[in-house]
Design a protein that fits this description.
mainly alpha; two-stranded antiparallel sheet
């Protein structure tokens, strides 16, 4: 009996030592340094690292859903295949370090929550024509980019085979009108988004 008890105690002690040895490594996986290393390992082949950031990544802020959509697009368009754990870790890291505060995502939250019969956001006639034909404008409101990133996004759309009726207008908008329309919203940090007209709850436009 005493031999069995001794073996049991030795086994438990070994398990405890192994757990203590692995704990720092598992905690390290969730650190910003580990997240940055994931971006470096899986994204820097195209998104060049410079100045402490990554091109076309570090000047953008999105919701977790937005970053998840970005990774999905990277797979569909560029063939970037990631393990599920890596994908989750990347989304968590980017959302933690380059995400939106609840107050910043409030105006477009109805789209994330898939609320039925919610009216879209009004971002003005220029963006309504240029972006609203294909996208919910809530999608525009749920990200932040600096001015250069918005311009690159417009150029990316022009080069991705848009219908001629849109791209002919976008050809001028990308260099002119779009810049004027987006400049007031081109802060990487925050900008005010008016809630939809006629919506209820958080998305109700205050009386004028």
């Amino acid at each position: 009996m005493s031999i069995r008890i001794g073996k049991f105690i030795a086994s438990m002690a070994g398990t405890l030592v192994m757990g203590l040895a692995l704990a720092p490594a598992s905690r390290a996986e969730g650190t910003p340094a580990a997240g940055a290393e994931l971006v470096r390992s899986h994204c820097s082949g195209c998104h060049r690292e410079q100045g402490g950031g990554f091109e076309r990544i570090s000047a953008i802020r999105k919701t977790p859903e937005g970053w998840s959509m970005t990774l999905f697009r990277m797979r569909q368009v560029h063939g970037v295949v990631l393990d599920a754990d890596v994908r989750r870790s990347l989304v968590r890291y980017l959302s933690d370090t380059q995400g939106l505060a609840p107050s910043e995502s409030a105006a477009g939250r109805f789209a994330l929550e898939q609320r039925p019969n919610a009216q879209d956001i009004d971002l003005g006639p220029e963006l309504g024509v240029m972006c609203g034909r294909c996208h919910s404008l809530a999608r525009v409101s749920l990200q932040r980019r600096d001015e250069d990133e918005w311009r690159k996004l417009a150029h990316t759309h022009l080069g991705s085979g848009l219908p001629s009726s849109i791209s002919s207008r976008g050809a001028t908008d990308a260099g002119g009108t779009s810049r004027a329309a987006l400049s007031p919203r081109s802060s990487l940090h925050s900008f005010r988004i008016p809630p939809p007209r006629g919506a209820t709850g958080e998305n109700t436009r205050p009386p004028t």
